């Protein structure tokens, strides 16, 4: 009789385990550090996230799995050829590594954004919550059963509630946290109900075995299985802010601290999409004729709602810059759904998955860069209005050029070649899958997006005007005041802007690199 005891592959677990262990260490250290030394926690967090990212290097072969069923408990697939990870709950394959690189890199840039910029927040709690959420986001793409998947998703989002509402006494922050909490709880409840139905119909939670069970489900359980799959996907649509489940995003981003909003827009979205890919492409593959067209409709609706919402933002609205980025992130989520809709018609969805991941990588770099510049501007213009960016080039030419480059990347215009390359790849996936109607809607939305991206870019180079009451315009700062503001800019914030700008420039020079890298994300 074989032993039921199995070894744990700690090398495979390292990208998720390092942030988790470090989160506890930071929380304990916060109890003993004096206030003047709290900055040390920030740099420990940055170093820990960098170490977690480096721990991906030994896994690059993509052949690690752990927490597997023993041979006698593995449910054989009907074709008799169970894959090496079919009975495992954690798999560090190529898809996992690419998404983990994205989320850990995004968390690292968020930590850099936060160094010496969030002094009004409790340091220990802030870094503990950020690391805890990053651990969940790193665990999620490696999850290969529905239970681990939902736990990882909640570990990602539960600390995010507290991060959004961590600014005590701020009404907008509390309101944002409440909206985020209520929408996420509803999504979790719907997902858990769906997962319970799927388990009742298939008798398993492992993704590959679920697909086999759905394909051979008894006739009397077929309806239950379909309802369960639908409810599970609806729950993920809430998490991803796909329209019409997007209502919480603008207020949440506007009320959250800027680094937290940046984190939610990139890491939270990447984690949610990786979960959606896993459940749809692996577990619910037998229902691809249903979820494929559904994703297409959601993609069209989401990109349209997001871009129209961003187009309506006015220069004088308080926190209008973050709201525009929030609506823009909804529109970008619509683009990310397009290759997934196309994947339903593909014999092997590897190309479509790679396209989605490539677009997510591009979006992560330039969107974090845009938030970094917004964090820089907010230091002298705390109301965060779009009008505060008028004439930014006159006082901060480097910041203005960086933000203009990021916005052009998001719009898909030169010199932001990486944005154009990613949009063409997404567009090609829709055309190649005979989703011409979706390609047309995407083209219209790209044109709509050009309006608000170019309108914001033009503000950066416009002639400075008198600052509105209650806000100091960056453009009208005197020369010595501007120099003082620049000299006091936290080094982490400068590093975040420099890293994202450098990555955007390199990828715009060789955009094929990111697609080739993402094409390794085979499931």
Helix/strand-derived category reads: mainly alpha
Radius of gyration: 23 Å
Number of helical segments? 20
**Distance between the amino and carboxyl termini:** 33 Å
Helix content: 55-70%
Mean pLDDT: 85
Can you write the helix and strand succession as a string? HHEEHHHHHHHHHHHHHHHHHH
How many beta-strand segments? Answer: 2
What's the overall geometry? globular
Q: What does the largest sheet look like?
A: 2 strands, antiparallel
Report the uncertain regions.
72-84, 468-487
Portion in strands: under 5%
Looking across the biggest beta sheet, what order are the strands in?
1-2
Catalytic activity: a quinone + NADH + 5 H(+)(in) = a quinol + NAD(+) + 4 H(+)(out)
Pfam family, one: Proton_antipo_M
Family: Belongs to the complex I subunit 2 family.
Enzyme class: translocase
